[in-house]
Amino acid sequence: MKKIKRIMIIPARGNSKRIKNKNIKIFNGKPIIHYAIDSAVKSNLFDKIHISTDSPEIKKIVKKKGIEIDFLRPKKISGDSTPLMDVFKYVIQEYSKKGLEYDEVWSLMPCSPLIDYIDLKKISSFYKNMNSKKPLLSISRYGVPIQWAYKMGKKNIIKQVNSNFHKIRSQDLTLHYFDAGQFVIFPTKFIKSAKSTKNINTFVGYKLPPEKSIDIDLEEDWKLAEITYKGLKIK
Predict the structure, then answer these.
(1) 50 and 69 in contact (C-beta within 8 Å)?
(2) Which of 75, 81, 156, 203 is the most buried (most CB within 10 A)?
(3) What pLDDT does residue 86 have?
(4) Whole-number mean pLDDT of the chain?
(5) Phi, psi of 45 (to 5 degrees)
(6) Is residue 219 packed enough to be buried (19+ CB in 10 Å), middle (13-18) or exposed (0-12)?
(7) Please, is 195 exposed, middle or buried when counting C-beta atoms within 10 Å of its C-beta (0-12, 13-18, 19+)?
(8) Which pTM value belongs to this model?
(9) pLDDT band at 165 (very low <50, low <70, confident <90, very high)
(10) Cα separation of 137 and 109, whole Å?
(11) Is the pLDDT of residue 95 over 70?
(12) CA-CA distance, 149 to 173, in Å (whole number)?
């Protein structure tokens, strides 16, 4: 059987806005990006680990982990609104120029310290058993039925979005999931032909438990992730 060649792309743009220098901020004793790198290395799944960054500072910090960045991300795809698909395409094209081709493109977010190498191995087995040519997305279940949602108006007055659902027991409502924002897997052929990732119906979902699904965007998310990390005793 042909060996599947995988590349892990960790997108780590500089100049984060909401949390300053988020991708290299110290998390429980070391730069947060080191956790993603350690997980990728320990999993022994990848033929190449590439940190996609426009930042010389991030490049230096990554080098201390023994990861050489073969090329920096150009400014034209380093903006706040740059789709990750553009980044993935660029990386694949650059390695193709070097004669390096991959069957699967994995991406682990730089601020995902709750995902360890054991998780990556489980994800790999799941994806292999699915035998799917579709990409995979990490998802997690909403803790409370979204059908019970409220919206807030002036003077903090709240209103039910749909009052009909509030009459229904939670166990009788359809479960809903959100993009956990931790990782994604693409067949390389998908990336080469895709224009965007907007059509979510093309994805296979991998369900993460709530404790693995903290999307670190704000300072309160960061604090919660640190507490959760200590509680989980990540390997």
Answers:
(1) yes
(2) 203
(3) 93
(4) 92
(5) -100, -15
(6) exposed
(7) exposed
(8) 0.91
(9) confident
(10) 12
(11) yes
(12) 13
Cβ distance 80 to 180 under 8 Å?
A: no
Per-residue pLDDT averaged across 94-98, rounded? 96
How would you label 106-130 residue by residue, b for 16+ Cβ within 10 Å and e otherwise? bbbbbbbbbbbbebbeebbeebeee
Decide if 39 contacts 124 (C-beta within 8 A): no
